[in-house]
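Tokens as discussed.
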């Protein structure tokens, strides 16, 4: 029997702290590191980040789009990032935000969540806005292979509010319905295999207004919290937004750490320092 992702994530956070560090090789960061905006620069950037952080950070989160922008050669770099990060002991959350229906969702699940795929990560981000049920292929593949899924619920971008805060006929916001559906999946998993943390997470921004944030008390799974640093979120915002479920929160940042590159030592120290601050705040 495979170990569920929720249990593996809990163990990684206990050993390494709660930081999820993004690897986002967008052109501005490549330039700031003095690198060329091509595959060679992409590879140098990404592998420097892996070298600096994969041995210390609980979760690394490569942003798939920045690799895909360089075509097949960029995707080959992403495959290397996933493999070498996992070999160094970090969990890899691939930020791909995929969401589709039927056989297409089956194919995404095979690519990102199935053992033996060169793009298979420990977890992947998905979008539920074709219906939460359309995610079943990804959720089922994740469960079968001991991997995780993080479902977009209430994101940190201002444009998301019109959809995510819309109220359905049952009186719940769309975001709350997503959280509740994820919680149902986690309840079934934990009833079957035990443990304290399910493998279906949600994405809720660290900068959302607590007055409109979804109720996370029934989730029983991890909460990916983007928005720290460059997007204006602070470590203290985590306590304000997430309150009683702080122990489930996986704060994520990229530029706040990556701006310390290209020096490996400075990158590693920045990640360690932020991870320590988060551990102290989240308990």
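Sequence:
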């Amino acid at each position: 029997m495979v170990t569920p992702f929720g249990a593996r994530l809990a163990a990684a956070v206990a050993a390494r702290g709660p930081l999820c560090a993004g690897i986002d090789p967008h052109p501005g960061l490549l330039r700031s590191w003095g690198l060329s905006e091509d595959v060679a620069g992409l590879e140098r950037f990404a592998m420097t980040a892996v070298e600096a952080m994969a041995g210390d950070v609980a979760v690394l989160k490569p942003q798939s789009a920045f690799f895909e922008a360089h075509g097949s050669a960029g995707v080959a770099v992403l495959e290397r990032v996933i493999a070498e990060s996992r070999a160094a002991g970090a969990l890899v959350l691939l930020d791909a935000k995929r969401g589709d229906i039927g056989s297409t969702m089956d194919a995404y699940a095979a690519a990102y969540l199935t053992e033996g795929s060169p793009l298979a990560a420990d977890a992947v981000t998905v979008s539920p806005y074709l219906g939460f049920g359309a995610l079943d292929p990804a959720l089922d593949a994740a469960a079968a292979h001991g991997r995780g899924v993080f479902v977009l619920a209430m994101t940190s971008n201002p444009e998301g509010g019109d959809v995510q805060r819309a109220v359905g006929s049952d009186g719940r916001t769309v975001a709350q319905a997503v959280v509740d559906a994820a919680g149902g999946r986690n309840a079934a998993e934990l009833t079957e295999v035990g443990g304290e943390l399910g493998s279906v997470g949600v994405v809720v921004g660290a900068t959302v207004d607590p007055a409109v944030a979804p109720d996370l008390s029934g989730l029983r799974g991890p909460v990916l919290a983007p928005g720290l640093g460059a997007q204006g979120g602070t470590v203290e915002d985590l306590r304000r937004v997430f309150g009683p479920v702080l122990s489930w929160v996986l704060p994520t940042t990229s530029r706040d750490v990556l701006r310390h590159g290209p020096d490996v030592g400075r990158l590693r120290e920045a990640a360690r320092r932020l991870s320590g601050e988060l551990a102290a705040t989240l308990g």
